[in-house]
From TrEMBL:
Residues 29-50 are annotated as: Disordered. Residues 68-103 form the EF-hand domain. This is EF-hand domain-containing protein. InterPro entries: EF-hand-dom_pair, EF_Hand_1_Ca_BS, EF_hand_dom. It holds the Pfam family EF-hand_5.
Length: 146
C-alpha cells in the first residue's frame, strides 16, 4: 500500500525544469506584441524562375547547356531501363502500370472486374489542416472551454 501511495504522489507532483533558462514573457506583460502581417509573403515569379533556373544550371555558370537541361530526363530514363541496355522496351516503360494491373487483378484472370479496378484509383493526399489560434490569442496556449 505504501508503494502505491508513493507512486501516486510521485506522479501527481508538478514537473520541475532543471534548466536554468527563464520562461519567456507572457504577451502583453513585459513586451509589446508584434503585429502579424496582413498577407503571407509569397515568392515572386522572378524568384521562382531563378530557383528553377538554378536547379538546371548544375555548374553555376549562368548558362544551361543541353546536357544540363536533359539531365533530369536521363535520370528518369535510367530508372526505367531495368536491364540497363540503353534501350527502353515497352514493358520497361510501362512497368509501373503493369505492376499496378497485376496487383489489382487479385484473381489473376488477366482482366479486372469493377471491384478490382477500384484498387487502381490514384491515391489523393489529404490536405494538411493546421489549427491556428484566433487572432490576438497568446501563442502557445490553448483556449479553455467552460
Amino acid at each position: 500500500m505504501l508503494l502505491i501511495a508513493a507512486g501516486v504522489m510521485l506522479f501527481r507532483t508538478p514537473a520541475r525544469s532543471l534548466s536554468p533558462l527563464r520562461a519567456a514573457p507572457v504577451v502583453g506583460q513585459e513586451a509589446e506584441p508584434r503585429a502579424l502581417p496582413e498577407t503571407v509573403p509569397e515568392a515572386t515569379p522572378r524568384t521562382r524562375e531563378q530557383k528553377r533556373f538554378n536547379r538546371y544550371d548544375k555548374d553555376r555558370n549562368a548558362l544551361i547547356t543541353r546536357d544540363e537541361y536533359l539531365a533530369s530526363r536521363r535520370k528518369a530514363y535510367a530508372r526505367l531501363d531495368l536491364d540497363k541496355d540503353g534501350r527502353l522496351s515497352f514493358d520497361e516503360w510501362a512497368v509501373k502500370t503493369t505492376d499496378k494491373f497485376a496487383a489489382a487483378d487479385t484473381d489473376k484472370s488477366g482482366s479486372m472486374t469493377a471491384a478490382e479496378f477500384v484498387a487502381t484509383a490514384p491515391k489523393r493526399k489529404a490536405p494538411v489542416r493546421v489549427k491556428c489560434p484566433p487572432a490576438g490569442a497568446p501563442a502557445g496556449r490553448e483556449e479553455e472551454e467552460g
